Structure formats: C-alpha cells, structure tokens
Amino acid sequence: MGARKPDAMTRTRIDDKLSVSGQPSLDAIGALGAEGVALLINNRPDGEEPDQPGTAAERAAADAAGVAYLDLPVTGPTITREAVERFHAAVEAAPGPVVAHCRSGTRSLTLWVLGEVLAGRLHRDEIGAFGARHGFDLSGAVRWLDAHGH
C-alpha cells in the first residue's frame, strides 16, 4: 500500500459561516487552518466505523493546524436539545468559518437546522426544501421536532 496523498474535503456550504461534510482524513483536517477555518465540529461517536480517525487524532490534527475543535458526538436517535444548543452556540461564537462533520454531513446539518427552527429563523415546513437544496434528506429533523413537541 502506497503513501496516502492529501485529499480535499468534500464540503457542502450552507451559508457564509457553516459548511458540513462527511468524514475528513487527518490530512484534510490539517489543511483547514490554511483555508481560514476557525472551528471543526465532530458529530461522530468514536468507533462508529473501523476506519475513522477518532476524536483524539482529529483534535491533534486540528490543534496542529491552528483550528479550534469541538467533539459533540450524536446519533440520529440520541440528538438532545442540549446538543442542538451547543452546536448552534459554537457555530455562532466561532470567529470565522466552521466545518462540521459526521459520516455523511446529515447529522451535522440536522443539528444546525434544528437550532435554526428553535431560534425562529427557519420554519419547520421549510426543512425539506432546505435539505433538498443542499443535497440532504432532513426528514429526521422533522421527526425530532415532532417527538419533542415542536
């Protein structure tokens, strides 16, 4: 097996502040600082897949790149209002661009959309179209709102 070449992270730009992505490599995390990214949010629990780098390795790569790092692991069924609020507050407080990732980007975007609905900036009826516009199925966000009385 040859040396891995650095890869570019495939990101979906949500707005001027937030982009979401699937699992980045450590090389891709290392390049974020040079791109001006201020914060990397990891929404994956460790051990979700055998080949993911894990929180410690991601944090070390982000630190080396001069990028702040937030470990906020969630799964679809275990998203809490506290996780939504922590995610939203971290994005809003970051002094520059934020990249949030999970396996595909869906959980990260779900956290953002739920925060926007709870803050009154996005109506629940807009979630499906918002997700489709960015290439994501956000039906889980609607189910979360239903289950939590919103």
Report the top-level CATH class: Alpha Beta
How many structural domains does the protein architecture include?
A: 1
Average pLDDT: 92
Strand content: 5-15%
Query: Between the first and last Cα atoms, what is the distance in angstroms?
Result: 51 Å
List descriptors.
alpha/beta; Protein-Tyrosine Phosphatase, Chain A; 40% helix; 150 residues
Provide a short characterization of the protein structure.
With 150 residues, the protein is of the alpha/beta class.
Mind sketching the topology for me?
Blueprint: E1 11-13, E2 18-21, H1 26-31, E3 39-42, H2 55-65, E4 68-71, H3 81-93, E5 98-101, H4 106-118, H5 127-134, H6 139-147
Parallel strand pairs: 2-5, 3-4, 3-5
Antiparallel strand pairs: 1-2
Helix pairs in contact: 3-4, 4-6
Walk me through the structure.
- The chain has 150 residues and is α/β, with parallel strands linked by helices.
- The protein has one domain: Protein tyrosine phosphatase superfamily (Protein-Tyrosine Phosphatase, Chain A).
- Helix content is 40%, strand content 13%.
- The protein starts with 10 loop residues before the first strand and ends with a helix.
